[in-house]
Design a protein that fits this description.
Chain A is an alpha/beta fold. Chain A contains nine helices and 15 strands. In chain A, helix 5 runs parallel beside helix 6. The termini of chain A are far apart. The chains are: A alpha/beta, B alpha+beta.
């Protein structure tokens, strides 16, 4: 009798479980499309203004919806604008940003009369605050190769980087305009946990399905998508992403034709290289 | 009919099922002809959350160990989907003292290949995981078995059919099943 009951219960359980879904489908959470916003790529660097500098950012802000800057963190935990994780000294010496002090970076000014100085993110934010410029700042945090034992914890340093950027955003009232781009969902989650007003975008190098799932799994705001590469963006993909509550920030946009196409399919944010 | 990659993919579920069924028949036929080995051979049928409704063969060897293969299909089609699977597992007894007992417990590593084709996607996945199996002899040739464990899912093939939904199999999921086995020899 006891065995019969056990078998019956097990059978009922198995029958019930056989109805279990193998696939986890994500619920709809439509995002409102407010028109494509244009961000000046690399702080609006062009033939006249060096990329990721105070001057390039100031030049780019008036004519665009915001700027995209690449950031690095120094040994003093200050956020500097630079695409490369290396600090270049006049004379060819190269050091890691994370291993260089602010004083050393500030000492770099010119080399053979050419300006090779670096800009602090705070200087740009301060300028925006003082001039009532409330526009998007996309913070592109790139990883780096550890340069010594003290810089092995790249993820930890990236988290520190997000904290520092958010602290600046709070200081200058710009957190709602901060967009973080990173390849690590954990770092983006960390940013969101520090201030829920910031927006977070996971990198996608043309892998639409995988990064969409990562973004949905981690409740991120969107995908920072390398356009014209891998899985090409189109109306169907944008419809699905918006339906599921994800935005797209597209970069690697080679010309005005690509730009017009991305606007036509309702890409939310476009990082454009400015012409002089 | 023009053979295209789409046609091949569309028929892959049925092809997979036929392949699995053929494999089981071949295994059964080979073992049935082998009279020299001390093998037991059982036909089985059951139901499980990954196995759905399934049938296969269980080959006992070296007294208490066994090897088992089966194919399964979800016969009810409530959500307009095709689900088929094939699994293989081996059973290793946990307690030697149970050799003559009517109830035995086995450690059972299992590999499941499953295919799901619905309105939105096609998935071909492999699921691997450990299970525990409890067997109970109802009669001389009739045995009931319950298995439970945890499986890890890995993608073999994936295709999106529409841009209406986003879904993905859970990486880890519990598995459990109940089956009846009839011993042929």
């Amino acid at each position: 009798m006891k065995v019969t009951v056990i078998i019956f219960l097990w059978f009922t359980g198995a029958l019930f479980m056989s109805q279990c879904k193998k696939i986890n489908y994500y619920t709809d959470d439509p995002v409102l499309f407010e028109g494509s916003k244009i961000l000046a790529h690399r702080g609006g660097g062009n033939a006249i203004y060096r990329e990721n500098t105070f001057e390039s950012c100031i030049n780019a802000l008036p004519g665009n919806d915001g700027i995209e800057v690449d950031v690095q963190i120094s040994k003093n935990h200050t956020i500097w604008l630079s695409h490369s994780s290396d600090v270049l000294f006049c004379g060819g010496e190269v050091k890691c940003f994370v291993a260089v002090t602010d004083a050393e970076i500030e000492s770099i000014t010119t080399c053979d009369t050419a300006d090779i100085s670096y800009t602090k993110l705070e200087d740009v934010m301060k300028y925006m605050k003082e001039n009532n410029i409330y526009k998007y700042i996309s913070i592109d945090m790139k990883g780096w190769v550890p340069c010594n034992a003290g810089t092995l914890d790249i993820e930890g340093l990236m988290r520190l980087e997000t904290e520092q950027v958010i602290a600046l955003g709070e200081k200058y009232g710009l957190t709602s305009y901060l967009l973080f781009e990173n390849q690590l969902a954990s770092v983006l989650n960390w940013a969101k946990s520090k201030n829920s007003n910031v927006q977070t975008f996971i990198y996608s190098f043309g892998n639409f399905e995988k990064q969409m799932l990562v973004a949905l799994d981690n409740d991120l705001d969107g995908i920072s998508y390398k356009s014209n590469f891998g899985d090409l963006l189109d109306n169907d993909k944008m419809y699905l992403l918006h339906k599921k509550g994800l935005k797209v920030m597209a970069w690697n946009i080679p010309d005005s034709v690509s730009q017009a196409y991305l606007v036509s399919i309702q890409v939310d944010l476009l990082q454009l290289d400015l012409k002089p | 009919m023009v053979i295209t990659s789409k046609n091949i993919i569309q028929s892959s579920g049925y092809f997979f099922l036929r392949l699995c069924t053929g494999f089981i028949f071949c295994t059964t036929a080979t073992l049935a002809q082998d009279n020299t080995a001390k093998h037991s051979l059982s036909l089985l049928a059951g139901i499980g959350n990954y196995e759905s409704v399934y049938s296969g063969v269980n080959v006992g060897f070296s007294r208490n160990h066994y090897f088992e293969v089966a194919v399964g299909i979800k016969p009810w089609n409530l959500e307009n989907e095709l689900y088929v699977m094939m699994y293989a597992d081996v059973g290793i007894p946990l307690f030697k003292k149970e050799e003559l007992s009517v109830m035995k417990i086995y450690f059972q590593p299992k590999v499941i290949t499953w295919y799901l084709n619905n309105d939105y996607n096609r998935f071909l996945f492999i699921a691997i995981g450990p299970e525990l199996r409890v067997t109970y002899n109802l009669a001389h040739a009739l045995q009931v078995c319950g298995s439970a464990g945890l499986v890890y899912n890995a993608k073999l093939y994936y295709e999106r059919k529409t841009y209406e939904e986003v879904g993905w199999p859970l990486e880890y999921q519990p598995s459990f099943s109940l089956q009846i086995a009839y011993r042929l020899r």
